[in-house]
Design goal:
The protein contains seven helices and six strands. By secondary structure, it is an alpha/beta fold.
Length: 238
Amino acid sequence: MATDHRTPAVTVTALAPFGLEADLIAVQVFEGENPADQSALDAATGGEVTRAMARGEITGKHCSCFVTPLLGEFAGRLLVVLGVGPRGEYSTTTTRRAATAAALTARRRRLARLVVSLQGLPALPLADLVQAATEGVTLGNFEPATYKTDEPPTAWIESCQLHLADASVAGLDAALDRGLVLGECSNIARSMANEPGNRLTPRLLAARALEVARDTDLLAEVLDERKLAELGMGLLLG
């Protein structure tokens, strides 16, 4: 099977985003509101965030995306401001989508190191936000076009740091693990769904299931032709 996804290294940090080793920094903004820490964003972009808001480029509406370079000591990096809709409608689903959008934005620009800020969000449990963001970044590290022969080499997110006000809250490590597992399980399913029938026959699908279960606590049972016949299932294995 083609390599169509990769697991990023995701961590949490309370350090200021602009001081982190990263290629792209993603922040979220609500519809009708200013971004959190707008003064810091303006300082890093030479006032471009405020100018973009005045021009109507940053609106906070769902799925809106504004990208601008950082200046001065942060030159060479990019800032992406992601619109996430009204504050009252925000949920962990929004977090997941925003993190996926951040990852895709970085990959389109062939940037490997990402920071996603979780500052200034509604008072949801931090562990839930961390899990959703981790899952979203992992989902964004999926490439469905692996069989296109004219595509350039795939760019991957290698690392992502989730910026929190307090990275010492109990349960965050477990939340990171859950987010990675959920994201990877989704990517494995997407990968198999993306395979043409001549490359993922029932036998190869069974082998893939055993491969996924290996080195885990999962149990996998493969039903051969005789067992299927006993169950009355007329499935011919290719």
